[in-house]
Predict the 3D structure of the following.
Amino acid sequence: MPEASWLRAARRPQVVDVALAALVLIAVSLQFLLPERENDDNLTWPGFLFGAATALPLVWRRRAPYVTGCLVGAATTAMTLHHAPPPDVVFGGFVVLYTVAAIGTTRPRRLMLLVWLAGASVSMTFKEHAEPFEYAFHLMSLLGAYGLGRLARIQRAYTEAVEERARRLAYESEMEAARAVARERARIARDMHDILAHAVSLMVVQAEAGPVVVRSDPSRAEAAFEAIAGAGRDAMSQLRRLLGVLKEPPGSLPPERSPQPSLAALAQLVAQVAAVGLHVEQLQTGEPAELPADVEVAVYRVVQEALTNTVKHAGATKAIVQLDWGVDELRVTVRDDGRPGKTRVQGAGQGLIGIRERAAACGGTAATGPGPDGGFWVIVTLPTEAQRVG
């Protein structure tokens, strides 16, 4: 609900200070308009002017606290000398000490407090038959006003610190969200690269072989075209799953998605590549263990990218995919018998960069290069869950 304009105006510092000055003037005047004893002085015009002089400077208390304190102190001294007895309560002094304690610097505000305490002690000598409790009352009242100002200063500093911390946490939260978005986009980009590169490579190879055998071996040509269609369907399915995350409107129900590829899908991947004409052999040593989901996806994508590079660049006839299970790591090796090629040897291709990034994201390492007996090797070592947690 919108705040009323008069309430907003009432909260302005200038309005508050004017109202406070008016209240102090009324309070000072009441001390003489309503005397406690018959022999107390009644309010006179000079007395009213001195009382007004203790109140009016309070309008500038925020802009010039020490000047205001000096003016109020001088007017209070004049009022004390004019009246016998002096004023019972120095309301202007309370406001001044509260203000300098709340917004003033250390040394000037302490000096102001000492001056007011000394002035209150001296003014009590002008009062006939002043009792000790009256001295204590005046001094403790001034100290109390100063203490309230210090508490207000501490509270304001604490509030500012809390607000600054909240702003900093909000900023850090926004930055972390932005970093998370960037990481997710990078992951999607890597997956899209792997999917498209693999599918397009298979489709190109099959499309190039199809016209050659379409007349001499129709059944083989039919298989080639079916492989092209299968690779395209698989790529479209995976791309639809990835891009669906980006296209979902806020608050909508997520569409049904197939799970991320895992070790169980390697056999299907090998069969898909074998359909191109590349003989792929899958080997395994050691005792298989359960892997984290991100490591399983990394293994699949690494093998997919390595076989894609073999189909695209190597001119190989055979490839071997080998999984070596260790106590705390899994070594994935993909090697072929083709020619290395300039890009593959230098490791400058986006696919090889993606392999290294995937391995590093899971806490592993990757090495690529020519094999000892020719061909090209991709070796990726990934930690198991036990090593990652430990």
Strands lie at 279-285, 318-325, 329-336, 365-370, 376-383.
